[in-house]
Design a protein that fits this description.
This is Ketoreductase (KR) domain-containing protein. It comes from Alexandrium catenella (Red tide dinoflagellate). InterPro entries: NAD(P)-bd_dom_sf. The protein is an alpha/beta fold. It is built from four helices and eight strands. It has a domain of about 140 residues: 3-Layer(aba) Sandwich (Rossmann fold). Helix content is about 30%, strand content about 20%. A four-stranded parallel beta sheet has the order 7-6-5-8, with helices on both faces. Strand 1 and strand 2 form a beta hairpin. It is globular.
Length: about 210
């Protein structure tokens, strides 16, 4: 807000507030950012198809995503609170033979990640909410895809899914990557005053609590 002078009234200058409203198109920017975050987890650079294009495509416009550029070391940086993971190959990109767990694979972004990973020769475990497997079931023609019912906010469901995952891995080889897709727009509207408490709890639970439980 700016404060500018108006005509004299009552013997003095009376401040008149001028409110400047700035409309920000957050939709595409938010989606692009979320996609970059999820793709960074598997070290991928790829183009997500537009809706009506290739099989499994869902975007309105074609979107190219890639890992973020290296940080500018001239900028102030926070001190590390912990040492980086030193396990060999921990930061390697997903490639042929990688074993990847995709949580919330029933979401559009998760389904596209599953499709791209299968195309790279990865073995994919697609964790979907119970009753929502129809989104990823068409991709099951590849023998490298396993469907895994999982409600990431239900501890009992997480424990049961972990047991099924251990049985599926079988030979003891660990997962190489875990990707949690919490992308999505919770219900309708952007104004906080119109949001319901239960909807906010569900959105925050999916984005913050569920990854910890899994």
């Amino acid at each position: 807000a700016q404060v500018v002078g108006s005509g004299a009234q009552g013997g003095g200058m009376r401040p008149k507030p001028v409110v400047v409203l700035l409309a920000v198109a957050v939709g595409n920017a938010w989606l692009a950012t979320q996609a970059r975050v999820d793709w960074c987890a598997v070290g991928a650079t790829a183009t997500l198809g537009a809706r009506g294009g290739a099989a499994g495509a869902w975007l309105r416009h074609e979107l190219t995503v890639s890992p973020p550029a290296p940080a500018d070391r001239r900028r102030p940086r926070l001190r590390r609170a912990a040492s980086p993971l030193q396990q060999p190959g921990a930061s390697a990109p997903a490639q042929e033979g990688s074993r990847v767990l995709v949580v919330e694979a029933c979401q559009p972004l998760g389904t596209e990640l599953v499709r791209q990973l299968l195309g790279r020769g990865c073995q994919v475990f697609a964790a979907h909410r119970p009753g929502r497997e129809e989104a990823v079931a068409p991709l099951q023609r590849s023998g490298e895809l396993r469907l895994l019912p999982l409600d990431a906010l239900d501890e009992a469901s997480v424990v049961a899914a972990a047991g099924r995952l251990r049985d599926a891995l079988g030979d003891g080889a660990p997962l190489t990557h875990i990707v949690h897709c919490a992308a999505g727009i919770a219900h309708d509207g952007w104004e906080l005053k119109a949001a319901e408490g239960s909807a906010l709890q569900e959105a925050l639970g999916s984005a913050a609590v569920a990854p910890v439980l899994v």
